[in-house]
Amino acid sequence: MTDTLTAPAPTPQRPRDRDWWRQASVYQIYPRSFADANGDGIGDLRGIIDRVPYLQTLGIDAVWLSPFYPSALADGGYDVDDYRDVDPTIGTLEEFDELVAALHAAGIKVIVDIVPNHTSDRHAWFQEALAAPKGSPARDRYVIRDGRGEDGELPPSDWESGFGGPAWHPMGDGQWYHHYFAPEQPDLNWANQEVREDFLTTLRFWSDRGVDGFRVDVAHGLAKDLPEQLPTHAELLALEAGTGEHPMWDRDEVHEIYADWRQVLNSYDPPRTAVAEAWVATPERRARYASPQGLGQAFNFDLLEADFDATAFREVVTDNLAQAAASGSSTTWVLSNHDVVRHPTRYALQGKDTAASADVMVRFANEWLRSGGTTPAIDPQVGARRARAATAFMLALPGSAYLYQGEELGLEEVAAIPQDRRQDPTFLRTGGEQIGRDGCRVPLPWSTTGPSYGFGSSAAHLPQPESFGAVSVEAQSGDPEAPLELYRRALALRAQLQTDEELTWEPAPEGVLHFSRPGGWHVVTTFGTEPAELPAGEVVLTTRPLVDGRLPGEATAWVRTAV
């Protein structure tokens, strides 16, 4: 028996090009680790401009740029000094304009990261707040509370930062500012109208420069309502999420903010897109961020967090297509990004005897990272097979596919980074207890040799392993068995075969998933080691060679059948 799932079709009266984002292939660039044109060890805008032909031949629809704003890099650029400028180490506004023009000329849209939950402690507003007295308008822009004790010498509560250590930092006069992340990232007060207006100005600033959309960092964290008597950290963690009334996260009034954003985004022709990074308790809560009255789309990380397992993958796809139908949006699919262990390594770790929880496995695989990638021993070939199969499965799904730089090279997580070279504040603030995200942010290898394998003319800001030369763009280009050429073929076919946002589950044996899309596009994935039969038709893509006409284990095939 078949089971057809349908996401809503684009609104009929709107031209198709306005809905380009609904089933786009989006490639995330972490600018400091993509390509270094000036040889200072840090990636830059000129490096991206030089690589636009590569991005074009990859076959993507859009580029998402992680933060490139002025920053002290307390959190990899997510501590923003100025939301309407470019960090001098990365480039200039003129180069940004040149990059947008080059990408648009190549048929590639541009999405930029916006970080509204907090500024950096070097931001002009925060410097003004430090110099201003208690109760001043400058201080009202941030989440600031009086300290406890006779002179406010104690923090307002015992809350802990998500990066480790206390979540309150003294301002020197008995008041403390809140920072959920690093101390260099003071949280903004979104009840302040000036804060709201300034970010609308930022949206217009980049939209006027030709940006096609925005990725919204910590989108669920903006609205806060801290009671006069703050709960303890334990009490805060115990508060029920998903009610819209949590003091810190996913409050209902956050959608008032995004309704104002949507008005600005819709004032452009075509309207600018937006996608929320929103970690929420239920699918229904996520759908509100993705509504046409809000940001329009929201990341779901369910596939990223799932084991390489047929039942888990089917449940994730079924649930998220239903969510998309409910919200009027299209769903999103992600397997890797700048915050998580790369998926070839995650899949190689799956099933190993580690004490890490599933959440830690996904986010940091922390025990394995702490060992420098030696314990437990893993089979990278298993991880590579599963990653290729999962990627081909994901690229065939209705909705938007978000790819992270380097996954097209099959890059694994880099675990063996010397402690004195690590940059992630999680590592620094937990004393190495949490290793952090440096391993997925190691600069890309472009050539087989050189001090940074073609990333630049000098050593990279994070050390690359010797194995990078063999998996570089130069080494893989033209090799039909290489991950790079698989991604190129898959993305080209995805563009040719893409059709209505509809999926039908077809009968399949245990451990195998088989779905079809309108137009005769069939996709079969084997999650176990047993081979599977394929439907009759033209096999246009496989992640492993067929054996006697059958799809081997841990593989995906795309088949075009007669309609």
From TrEMBL:
Residues 28-441 form the Glycosyl hydrolase family 13 catalytic domain. SMART domains: Aamy. One of its GO terms (molecular function) is hydrolase activity, acting on glycosyl bonds. Keywords: Glycosidase, Hydrolase. Pfam families: Alpha-amylase. PANTHER family: ALPHA-AMYLASE FAMILY MEMBER, NEUTRAL AND BASIC AMINO ACID TRANSPORT PROTEIN RBAT. Belongs to the glycosyl hydrolase 13 family. This is Glycosidase. It comes from Barrientosiimonas endolithica. The lineage of its organism: Bacteria, Bacillati, Actinomycetota, Actinomycetes, Micrococcales.
